[in-house]
């Protein structure tokens, strides 16, 4: 049954494609394909239900946490999961099988998110804010472990020209579940959702990581051939030298750093909605629904296109996000009547969700296809660490500028996105 469904989803009518994986791994592709898909569906649902750009921002505001703490959530969560990777990559490279690193990371994420649910039930104001920040830091560090190992495992178990579709189907299926969650929040908003409801939502989000860890442990992973010289090649400085010696990798990191507008602008759309429309809880439901529908509609398309040219997916997606940001800047700055229309912001978030999904899927597929073996761990760790540091700087600067003008932040980030679209288009194709 899995074999037939795998062939149907990937349009395989003849011999199975096993490009860039071993003969042993080829025999287990359908089973691993659906294990990865199902486990990632649960983590993506958990990500949405505890998203710092929407749900955590809403929660911290609900418990009256200081605004300066709320502004730190997105940079800490995103950069905290990236910066440590270059330091732990060497240790991971010494192990021939790595799925258990992912499982351990998922279990710690389960505990970290569950603690947030406990915090909002028992604490308020500044105390709640600091405790949530601490939980987000723990979550991010655990996420770095799972993120670093996941791409290597996909590279070992799923063949080229099938990885983009896997990511696309994963996001699409999780989008359906996200849509259901958004509808539930919309329904509860009619009866004034309480802090108990939001905390239970967080507890459910935490549970998704526990379920995912159990599923992921069933992956059939075969050992890597370890590099005998790994001790000489895996130190911190030698990894950073990749940026100097590997031109294609360096250009990818530059392009990726310019794609951050799709992630960094998202919370500002929520803030604009609260500023010009209000803080009614139905708006949170609308934002979550918009994200879910965007995933359902766009992910299969992005996945198929990524298997043909992942760098084009990056370029097209960030171009959409950038043009949207410029349009929003114009509306907020010059059209007072339009900026108070409540559906403008969920609609914009929907379009941004389509774009950000393409950016994420494109860059993840590109780096997996560009590298081979242990090189994947090095590429992922270096690029994520660099991007994490850039996120800390740009996130901090954006928070400062936003005190003066939120729409200016969106405009500046969108201009960088236009440059990122051009740099992504110049990258070489890596799918062959």
UniProtKB/TrEMBL annotation:
Transmembrane portions of the chain: 55-76, 100-121, 127-145, 166-185, 197-216, 249-270, 282-302, 314-335, 341-359, 379-397, 403-422
Record domain Major facilitator superfamily (MFS) profile: where: 201-432
Pfam family, one: MFS_1
Record's keyword annotation contains 4Fe-4S: no
Keywords, in A-Z order: Membrane, Transmembrane, Transmembrane helix
Coiled coil residues, start to end: none
Domain of life: Bacteria
Protein name in the entry: MFS transporter
Highest classification ranks of the organism: Bacteria, Pseudomonadati, Bacteroidota, Flavobacteriia, Flavobacteriales
